């Protein structure tokens, strides 16, 4: 692989574009931020400065436009990094243009969070195809270090390996290799859970589901708040893509709930559309901010003081145990709590363990449980599946999986009792269990 | 030292964590450090004879005192364990180590658990800085002053400037080295932060002046963290070694210690050191005492130093006080690479307080734990090749309480 010194960034004004640019500039590359206008590219530069908390990162960044500067910048680039909108036709148009002016040894990467890498490479030159792969950074890249590297069948295998090593050593990433399958590993596993919770919200309510599958189950943020943060349009694109293009044991859980589809068509995209909101919405009444929560049954919003979740004793007890660092005791209570609510929570959480570890295998998305663990832990900030198994216990986990008719992943079938499955060094597993 | 104190190991929490965001009580941090240390050393809770906690201001930051008692909460076998909490501002962790080792030397106990801990991200930076002001003479030096400690350590720089001359570019380089080292430390708070020499030299909205000549890049961090350490008598260490089939000599020791306290007011310190080649002579003496007790002639008898860089000026001071250069010539060791990784005497391979982080009451135990990891070759990417002896310097207040150790 050629040394990476000069980077060109396509789509520099978007959050992922500016954030990716910051990562490359911080790693010592000279980066050209390209956008439709110089002003837009400059906006990206300012975003990068704010992410780095340094004005001086701009010393490594120059700005330009697609119209005036793309050909010259790409001809000098060692890495062309594409962070345009998640529109495969748009991406392909740009790649056609890039292919005409890039050096044959340059590397081309896309930050796409789940579109087909092979499809993007289709029709491109032989050297383009060999040097093309996905480098999926998570938002915001300056904070979230989990990264997926996705080769297509024509990618030089040596390049994949070297990119992973480089991302880890020079750019501070925790990187995994995934197959070129819809949504890759992190979003496949993560959005299965997010969409399942969105489906369940129709019957059980938004606030209730976010409370039931809240941070105490091993995540930094509750699921439906996460969907609001990500954006409903992005959520839809990801689950639709998986739903159409895969068939696995959780196929139905990727069906976008009809209420979400309807609200998206009316402009409800989550935090990015504050006037409409998503699962949650804030409105000002005089000097007061009122927090509203969606009622999926009607599509209307209710005051969260009236529509909030009633506290459940078992959840509160688990949170109290997490608060004082008794994670194993807390998760023991999680596995033994009685009642329909506890059953529902376990179905989702053990469903995550099962689905995540079932994506491991020769014909699956990743080769090793460590890959799923790393991307869920450091891309999503969720307790990695094997951390949950270690804390809960292997026997107890398998028993729960069987109880909820969830497939027992091979890695759990083959594990020895007492063996610790999560072996990532220097990680405090307690960080995954918020109270 | 007359009676050897063995270091069996310990555990550090990830200093990048924000425990308020995790909605955790300070006991969770102590628990992770203690249980992590027990696992790392392979010790059973029932083997521990005594527990010591180093902490500066949990009453202020976490509305919680009596931290020694929280050790008992960690494991049923700790019920009845004699415990105590020790406070000497930013040197609290080292004072807890001294107390534990004194008890072992006195023959009272054979195996001590020391936990240094501080939770600081519970309040906004201004309020936190006011709490830190209680490490100075609060009424005289901190009350009503915004960010009192950066100003006090800015004045340490000013005193160097007055006596010997001081260039801010040397302070910027010290900061850059610490950030750079922290990138190799998987438990360092700033391991993924952006920092360059250009940034450290610049003064703008991203690197504003906090007090006097001290800018953001000159400061250590507001950190949540804990580090445990397990200390043993020769009898306990011998049993520990036998059980594991290792040689007693392979277990590192606290080879020497030094402990001095200067007048608490910064002006009084400066007045006292007038005419002395060293700006903080008591700090110098604490280092010399540690060297003497360790049977080391000077700083060149150690392979690395973990020092107290609460600000770049304190590391600048430490360079000549450790004797790497003549007084006032610390800039030479900054310029010629002596203190960098791969240099003649690396300082703060961990990233120090600037790069690794500064959970106040935990810093002393974190430093000695890092010294232990260095001499046992467990530092991974921030390992100083072949380190046999490592010195630490932990300072409370504006150069007030100084504690130095040599581990090897």
How are the SSEs ordered, and which strands pair?
The complex is a heterodimer of chains A (435) and B (408).
Chain A: E1 6-10, H1 15-26, E2 30-35, H2 38-52, E3 61-65, H3 66-76, E4 79-82, H4 88-101, E5 107-110, H5 117-121, H6 126-130, E6 132-137, E7 146-151, H7 157-169, E8 174-177, H8 186-204, H9 206-212, H10 223-230, H11 232-245, H12 258-265, E9 280-285, E10 288-295, E11 300-303, H13 304-307, H14 313-323, H15 327-336, H16 340-357, H17 369-378, H18 385-392, H19 394-403, H20 410-414
Parallel strand pairs in A: 1-2, 1-4, 2-3, 4-5, 5-6, 7-8
Antiparallel strand pairs in A: 6-7, 9-10, 10-11
Chain B: E1 5-12, H1 26-41, E2 50-54, H2 58-61, H3 68-72, E3 83-86, H4 92-105, E4 111-118, H5 125-132, H6 138-142, H7 148-163, H8 168-182, H9 197-201, E5 209-211, E6 214-215, E7 225-232, H10 234-244, E8 253-261, H11 266-272, H12 281-294, E9 304-306, H13 312-321, H14 330-335, H15 352-355, H16 363-375, E10 390-396, E11 401-407
Helix pairs in contact in B: 4-16, 7-13, 8-13
CATH homologous superfamily heading of the domain at 5-123 and 222-244 in chain B: Thiolase/Chalcone synthase
The CATH architecture of the largest domain in chain A: Orthogonal Bundle
* Envelope shape of chain A: globular
Q: Look at the structure and give the CATH class of the domain at 5-123 and 222-244 in chain B.
A: Alpha Beta
Oligomer status: heterodimer
Structural class of chain A: alpha/beta
Low-confidence stretches of chain B: none
The assigned structural class of chain B equals alpha/beta
What's the main sheet of chain B like?
9 strands, mixed
**Count of the separate structural domains of chain A:** 2
Shape of chain B: globular
CATH topology tier name of the domain at 5-123 and 222-244 in chain B:
Peroxisomal Thiolase, Chain A, domain 1
Strand order of the largest sheet of chain B: 3-2-4-7-1-8-11-10-9
CATH architecture of the domain at 5-123 and 222-244 in chain B: 3-Layer(aba) Sandwich
On the 0-100 scale, what is the average pLDDT of chain A? 96
How much strand content do the residues of chain B show? Answer: 15-25%
How many helical elements of chain A?
Answer: 20
> Topology as H/E string of chain B?
EHEHHEHEHHHHHEEEHEHHEHHHHEE
CATH class of the largest domain in chain A: Mainly Alpha
